[in-house]
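USER:
Try writing one entry.

ASSISTANT:
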Amino acid sequence: MKKISIVAIAAIMVMGSMFTSCEAIKNTNNTQKGAGIGAVAGAVLGGVLGNNLGKGGNGAMGAVLGGVVGGVAGGVIGNKMDKQAREIDAVLPGAEVVRVGEGIKLVLNENAVRFDTNKSSLTAAAKANLDKLVPVFAEYPDTNITIYGYTDSTGPADYNLKLSGERAASVRNYLNSRGVSSTRFQVTGLGIADPIASNETVEGRSQNRRVEFAITANEKMIKDAEAEVKN
């Protein structure tokens, strides 16, 4: 299994002077890391990381960074997201799973969900890969899922913006047809924004035709986490 990226740890590194040593960071568990990030570094995580990630602030990464609850409750949420991220990574190794703050950024690239040029329809392979996510989403029902669609730079920008929204909607509609509640989803098309590869090559354009998920805690998960830390 590939290693899951954990962007949240960068916030701890930024706060390094607040810990007695690197050993202190290494010995903290996931819940403690989440609590520390939420309680002390919420501004760092949302500001420094958001700025450093630049354009990512407009997409899934920005949505995840914007959903920080903070405190010990944030650590509880982060621990649950750790587990969900590991399960997604296990069932869909072709995707990019990034744990950041108290949420998950999931990139369904050409290895997981591929779109042909000027198409928003899902291939049989794409549907098979989305099917693998359904049980994980069912296991963690107390999350919101925002889906961002993207295109390559081929064609007019306004056309691509519309197409990207249709791609995100195709993914949402398919997951909904497989039993994932429609109330959990929001969809947004970002067109040619935030390319992850060069649009000058066929391979690069294929990589840019993708969808990204921002998986964040819903109100129930937040309230449950707050109640848990009070007991």
